[in-house]
Design goal:
alpha+beta; D-Maltodextrin-Binding Protein, domain 2; 2 domains; seven-stranded mixed beta sheet; three-stranded mixed beta sheet
C-alpha cells in the first residue's frame, strides 16, 4: 500500500462531529441519577444475566466493573442483588453495534457512536437500514462510559538498556509514513530528527564532542493495525486525518476518512493485522521492530513495552497517561458531546487538543442500548421485561458515577480517565431517557 501523505497539514473534516442546533443539553434530564444499588426481591435481579459486548477498548473497564458492581449491590441489597452477570465479550466496536441491533447484546459498546456520519456517509448504513424499529437510530440511547488514550506501543529491544529513560518520540507525519509504507526503517532520518537524545557521541582527545550519530536501530518497522472493525482504529485514523487532512490519500488518489475499518481497507504491505486491542498488543510484544495503536490500559497490562511520546498540536512531546488524556478532553469542554434530536451524537471527537499538555490521540467510548424494551422478546439472552431493562439501566448508571463506590473509580484503576462532570451528566441524561412501554423506569 502506498499513499500520498505529503503537503501542508491540518485540513479538517467538514462533517466530523456533526454540530447540531438540535442538541439536547444534559440540563434537560428528567432526573439526576445517583448510582442507586437498591434491588427488591420483586426485581428478580439475582437471576438475570444480560449479555454485553463490543469494543475491546472497553474490556479492561467492563470486566473489572461487572464484579465490583455485583459486590457493591450485594452490600446494599443482599441476596436480592444481581449475581449472575457474565463478563463482557470484547468482540470489537462493529460487532458491538451489530450485536445490540440484533438483540444478542443487551449492551453493545463502541468507541464511535452509532449513526456517525463522515463526509456525508453514515458509517453504520448497513446496520441502520431504518426499515424496522430495531434498525432505527432514534430507538437507541448512547451512553458515554469511559475516556481513554490510544498509545503507540513499540518493540525496540536494542534501546531498552541504553535509552530506557528516553522513550521514542513520534509525530503524526512519521506515524502516517509508517502506516503507509513510506517509512520502513527505525533509523529513518525523520525519526532520528525527532529523537536527538538517542545518539552516540564521539569525542576527540580533549573530550569535546565532534560527532553525534543517531542510535535508532537499523531495524525494519512493522506497523500493526486492527484487522477487525474497530473504534480504536477510528480514533487513530481520526487523529491522522485531523493532522494530515486531505493529503492522506489511498493509492488510487481518493481521500481517506476515518472509519472503523483500518484505513478503509488499505493495509500496510509490511504490516500485521491484529484482532482486538489484545491481539495488537500481543503482536507488538512478539515482533521486534513492531509498533501498534492500543488503548492505554493494554500498555499498563503488558508492563514490558513502552509507548512513544507524541508531538502534540502545541509542539510538545507528550506521553500517554491519565493526566495528559484528561488535559486533551478539557480542551474540548466548550463543545461537549450531546445527542441530537435524530439520535446522532455530536462533538464526540477529542483528537488533537491544542493545549501544551494534551495527549492528542484520545476518545470516549459509548454503551448502546435499546431505549424501550417492551415487546422485544429477548435482549442479550434475557427476557425483555421491565426488570431486566431496569437492571441494565442501573448498571450503566453506576458505571457513570464518580466517587469511591462508583464505576468511574474502577475506570481510573484500569488506566482510564474519570469522565468529566459534564460528560457524566450526559450519561445520566441518556439513561433517564430509557422507558418501558413508554413509562420512565423511575431510577434515582
Amino acid at each position: 500500500m502506498k499513499m500520498n501523505l505529503r503537503g501542508k497539514l491540518g485540513v479538517a473534516l467538514a462533517t466530523l462531529g456533526l454540530l447540531s442546533t438540535f442538541a439536547v443539553s444534559p440540563a434537560g434530564a428528567s432526573a439526576t441519577l445517583t448510582g442507586d444499588l437498591t434491588f427488591a426481591s420483586a426485581d428478580g435481579a439475582a437471576s438475570l444475566n444480560p449479555a454485553m459486548g463490543g469494543s475491546s477498548f472497553d474490556e479492561p473497564f467492563f470486566n473489572s466493573a461487572i464484579p465490583v458492581f455485583m459486590s457493591e449491590a450485594a452490600k446494599v441489597s443482599g441476596s436480592n442483588a444481581p449475581s449472575a452477570i457474565s463478563l463482557y465479550s470484547p468482540t470489537g466496536s462493529t460487532a458491538g453495534k451489530k450485536g445490540v441491533v440484533a438483540g444478542t447484546y443487551a449492551v453493545g459498546a463502541s468507541d464511535v457512536p452509532m449513526g456517525t456520519v463522515v463526509n456525508g456517509t453514515n458509517l453504520d448504513s448497513s446496520i441502520l437500514t431504518g426499515t424496522s424499529p430495531a434498525t432505527t437510530l432514534t430507538n437507541y440511547v448512547q451512553v458515554p462510559v469511559v475516556l481513554g488514550g490510544v498509545g503507540m506501543m513499540y518493540n525496540l529491544p536494542s534501546l531498552n538498556a541504553r535509552f530506557k529513560k528516553d522513550p521514542v518520540v513520534l509525530n503524526s507525519t512519521v506515524l502516517a509514513g509508517i502506516y503507509d509504507g513510506a517509512i520502513t526503517k527505525w533509523n529513518d532520518p525523520a525519526i532520528c530528527h525527532l529523537n536527538p537524545k538517542i545518539v552516540k557521541l564521539t569525542k576527540n582527545k580533549k573530550g569535546r564532542i565532534i560527532r553525534r550519530t543517531c542510535e535508532m536501530p537499523n531495524l525494519s518497522v512493522v506497523p500493526v493495525y486492527r484487522a477487525d472493525g474497530s473504534g480504536t482504529s477510528f480514533i487513530f485514523m481520526n487523529y491522522l486525518n485531523a493532522t494530515q487532512g486531505a493529503n492522506f490519500k489511498t493509492s488510487a488518489g481518493a481521500e481517506v476518512y476515518p472509519s472503523t475499518t483500518f484505513n478503509s481497507g488499505e493495509v500496510p504491505s509490511d504490516g500485521l493485522g491484529g484482532q482486538k486491542n489484545a491481539g495488537v498488543a500481543a503482536d507488538v510484544e512478539q515482533t521486534a521492530g513492531a509498533i501498534g495503536y492500543v488503548e492505554y490500559s493494554y500498555i499498563l497490562l503488558q508492563h514490558t513495552l513502552p509507548a512513544a511520546l507524541i508531538v502534540n498540536a502545541a509542539g510538545k512531546d507528550v506521553p500517554v497517561n491519565p493526566t495528559t488524556v484528561a488535559a486533551d478532553a478539557n480542551s474540548f469542554s466548550a463543545t461537549p458531546p450531546a445527542e441530537t434530536s435524530g439520535g446522532v451524537v455530536s462533538n464526540y471527537s477529542i483528537v488533537n487538543g491544542t493545549g501544551a499538555g494534551d495527549y492528542p490521540i484520545a476518545g470516549y467510548s459509548w454503551a448502546i442500548v435499546r431505549e424501550d424494551w417492551n415487546g422485544l422478546g429477548t435482549v442479550g439472552g434475557v427476557t425483555a421485561s421491565l426488570n431486566s431493562e431496569k437492571l441494565v439501566a442501573k448498571f450503566l448508571d453506576w458505571c457513570s458515577q464518580p466517587g469511591a463506590q462508583g464505576g468511574q473509580t474502577v475506570a481510573q484503576q484500569q488506566g482510564y480517565v474519570p469522565l468529566p462532570a459534564y460528560v457524566s451528566a450526559l450519561a445520566e441524561h441518556q439513561i433517564s431517557l430509557m422507558t418501558y412501554n413508554g413509562v420512565s423506569l423511575g431510577l434515582s
